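G., before I forget:
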Amino acid sequence: MTDDLRAVIGDVREATEPPGEDDVAFDAPWQARAFALTVALRRTGEFPWDAFQTRLVEELEASADTADVSTDATGAEAAYYEAWLAAFERLLLEEGVLDDEALAERAAAFASGERDASEFVVGDRGHDHDHAHHDH
Amino acid sequence: MTGDHDDPDHPVPTDDPDHPVPTDDPEARARALQSLLVEKEKLSTDAVDEVVSLYEEEVGPMNGAEVVARAWSDPDYREWLLEDGTAAIGDLGYTGVQGVDIEVKANTPETHNVIVCTLCSCYPWPVLGLPPTWYKSPPYRSKVVKRPRRTLREAFDLDVPEDTEIGVWDSSSEIRYMVLPQRPDGTEGLSETELAELVTRDSMIGVERLGEQSAEELA
């Protein structure tokens, strides 16, 4: 790893945080989905946070061994959430929540276009509660 | 495998329908997880959407800024915050994952604090939102622990005075840290709302220092 800290940290900062622009929480929809699934399932008490975090650490270690750490900012975010997604998949498979083959089959169905994200919208429309605006 | 073929009635066949080829497409994999978890009634799509909108719209450094402004204005709150960060932050309505505590480390003229997660990306979500890309990057995670003073100077243009000690706080699955910056000089008459506007995300991570700056410089 290079020892030029300005290059390895400062450049990532400048690339990902252009002055005057608002922070964007997620770079891509799948990253938001991977994050939200994990947090939402944690809220139900399905698994302790540790169980996920241990696997995230392992996945990040594994990806750091192979990936070039000085990739561009978009690449850095994607690599991070790839590790996140892999950790969450492993958690669900290893804890027996999901089945390996069923997951591969479902992923293939989404990849081929046989299924699409409209199935996530339909469920939402069935509810009668007010989506207009909540005060917090 | 491709996601953009033309005929939706004839999806790309796999050689053996019982052993589909695993896909690398992260969107397809994330959707598959959601689809199966919803089908098994482990989750609702509403619950997933709620988390996304919470982190996109409601949780962010403005929460931490409110905590800091309260601590600057109210000595009792400050004491509580430093003793039991989770409770004092929860009192303002910001709570996180159950079982994860937030500890607040106060900067003084003698001590500067900076937070990191060397193993992954633990971060005080309820007060700061999601971490910036650089916080999650391997170089930050390793360098700020080994060479904090140099990292702050070279990567963040922050010169911590030689006689100021630097405390590096490595987050874990049980404890996340937040920095309480020093209140800038010349801010005596300001309201909590005005004070909160001076507080930056980076100052609560500890890669920026507010104490040496005056209110005019920050504005």
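Residues 14-58 of chain B form one domain. Residues 26-39 of chain B form the longest helix (14 residues).

More on Monday.
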